[in-house]
């Protein structure tokens, strides 16, 4: 019987946690009475993580282990797990035992009520204030404002997706945290529910302030993808057209003054050069927008990717 649930968990040097991780998720998944598979991705661990996973997999065929040749990062691990998942519902979670598997039944209930994505919200986080909680709060508000998808906790990895929502998404950088925002252009229904957050018992956190810059750069990418990826000429054309208009008006005014009042252009050389600069910069931006439009069309046509998403079809044959 194919699994209904696929749980995707990346791990990196989490050997002390793996036995408990397997036991807790297995117990929670068995309690749902749904066929499931547990996919754990070893993201280039240098401790005994793979040996522990190998032993666990020998005991349970529902556990699948994917081992990377080196550390590719959490986003790549999630992408590999999602690609390998066979279930109609895909759960993502962290491998440090801070996510509580006991929250899964409540999240699955929201899916049964019609949600496409259910996101966990760690209302009572067990993390340091200055290095984790405060930067996370600021980032969550910034991401919500930039993407238009209001969530209290983008960083919580405990999420449930319908497979048809998450599988078409292509992930790079640190974009796994932006999955709800990226999926929003499909017209999905997103629900956020409070979940339990537990203190880490073994090992050390793989997250820190060093990731903030990368997350902000990825946010710029996501904002562009959500707003202009289908019609890039709108942003390049608008800015280029405005700059070109400023250049035409400025050079036109200088030309008129030269013809009517015999002023010397050399006396206004900086203004003349500025007018030429903004005029040609505007032309370049419009041209760049046209080239981007061609690239977008080639990208979608080469992948045979439609510009629409169908949820249901009702018909009588």
CATH class of the largest domain: Alpha Beta
Measured by DSSP, the beta-strand proportion falls in 5-15%
For the termini, the CA-CA separation is 29 Å
Main beta-sheet annotation: 7 strands, mixed
Strands ordered across the widest β-sheet: 3-2-1-4-6-5-7
Characterization of the model:
The protein has about 325 residues and is an alpha/beta fold. It has two domains: about 5-230, Spore Coat Polysaccharide Biosynthesis Protein SpsA, Chain A (Alpha-Beta Complex), CATH 3.90.550.10; about 235-300. Helix content is about 50%, strand content about 10%. Strands 3-2-1-4-6-5-7 form a seven-stranded mixed β-sheet, with helices on both faces. It is elongated. The two termini are about 30 Å apart.
Short summary:
This protein is an alpha/beta fold. It is 49% helix and 12% strand.
What are the SSEs and their pairings?
Blueprint: E1 5-11, H1 15-31, E2 36-42, H2 49-59, E3 63-67, H3 74-84, E4 89-92, H4 104-112, E5 117-121, H5 129-147, E6 159-162, H6 163-166, H7 179-183, E7 190-194, H8 212-228, H9 233-261, H10 269-302
Parallel strand pairs: 1-2, 1-4, 2-3, 5-7
Antiparallel strand pairs: 4-6, 5-6
Helix pairs in contact: 1-2, 5-8, 9-10
